[in-house]
């Protein structure tokens, strides 16, 4: 495992982190038992993973609870935990600044820790990202002073939102939607580096499309039923073109994760993980890297063939 800088007051983080959404009971994805969830986290630690991303609403609080149990006997200073604010344990949305402290205290209790390394606002409307117009960031600064959190930021999807946050707050962490098919946030990477902001790359496999397991004839249910037949056909064609760019030397999944890791600004990448087998595959992907020429070809492909499309996540 390789490690990269995240925030000044935390240890470097593993290039591959563990997104803990799937750890929770009734997460909206494959239901995982507590025993399997704890085993998955412990196996991740054994493989060198030290970054864990969770939230109160993941499994209605059970993701944080299970993560806390799994990490109970691990040296706290060796691991980095990121949790969120804005989507409640009960499944409601509440971005009111007065709820930040209450939400955090509940997360700390579930995680069995007295601090989190970072607390980010969970995919808020753009209006909450401007520090000159919101009380959130004064409260977050106070929590840093108290030692409850080491850094704060937001989870977001676009460069425009990213720039607003970086220009108007002292945020030191941003979780961004970034992969071969969604590169808009890369426009903010240089500024993030200049401001010593750690970047978490979320949805690096484009909800499974960049694993190579879907095609134009795939059918989806559950949360992925959001894709129309046209969406599916468009995605499938784009993935075929990406495959032709990266070639067959490595799996599409390995290439997709390598693409995200190739950017110096990206601290860690958090692919979805529902099994130890997937975890090991994700970690093993760190053994490969993509040539600079291939990265450039993928960037050109995005600008020429994807930017004019409105791909639903």
TrEMBL record:
Q: Which GO terms describe its cellular component?
A: cytosol
Which InterPro entries does the record cross-reference, listed alphabetically? AKR, AKR_Detox_Biosynth, NAD(P)_OxRdtase_dom_sf, NADP_OxRdtase_dom
CDD domains to which the protein is assigned, alphabetical:
AKR_AKR11C1
GO terms of molecular function? oxidoreductase activity
Q: Which residues form the NADP-dependent oxidoreductase domain?
A: 15-301
Keywords for the protein's UniProt record, in alphabetical order: Oxidoreductase
Mind telling me which PANTHER family this protein's record contains? Answer: NAD(P)-LINKED OXIDOREDUCTASE SUPERFAMILY PROTEIN, NADH-SPECIFIC METHYLGLYOXAL REDUCTASE-RELATED
Protein name from the UniProt record: Oxidoreductase
Organism of this sequence: Nonlabens agnitus
